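FIELD: query
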Amino acid sequence: MSWDIYQVDAFADRPFSGNPAGVCLLEGAASESWMQSVAAEMNVAETAFLVRRDDGAYDLRWFTPTVEIDLCGHATLASAHVLWEQGILPAAARARFHTRSGLLTAWREAETIRMDFPAEPVVAGKTPATLAPAIGVPFVFAGRNRMDWLVEVADEATVRAVRPELAELAALDARGVIVTAASAMPERDFVSRFFAPGAGVDEDPVTGSAHCALAPYWAAKLGKQALIGFQASPRGGTVACAIAGDRVVLGGRAVTVLRGKLL
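FIELD: result
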């Protein structure tokens, strides 16, 4: 038996940019240990595994090289992209995914894929004593949601200069840490970086799920419902965000760079 598998650069409009994701199409449920092994073999931030339901929706799970996670934006975008690109879903059809974070949907608007995700606002709270030393720069706000810590620093230059102590971040009781600031460029609203060494991803290139926290945070600060975020990793990527009640609509493009058979 073999399975179709793809590698897609998500939140990217050209190959070798944005965030690479694995997408594996399964005919039926697979064991967690097998999916974890495939994700480790792919060795990208997340690999998505899809199983079609009778109603045309999909069960979707995401694995980093070391753990299964609750929410992933770029691998969901990559999954929807593959379904449309391969003609598995008609271009006008919505992609529907049943996940550990509930039902997620995606649709196409010209060359952009939009995704309806849960908002994951952060709440200010007492920070662990190790957080500030691990980040290595002063911050003006720290809060967390069910997954991550979000830290706002002084400016974009500080975000780009952060060189965190990854071992200290890995020891935190959280998936990862988002570092963010207002953008220095007028065409963007905010910039960010995301570190999740405890989940096997030292720095994620472009993190859709982090924007489920970033969007409501910056919407409240800037008084805007539609925002543009840029994740300032070495590969970099742009994420369009729109607040829709307790949901966030994320937008981006994707490019397939590899397809083959998993044997």
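FIELD: remark
The CA atoms of residues 55 and 201 lie 34 Å apart.
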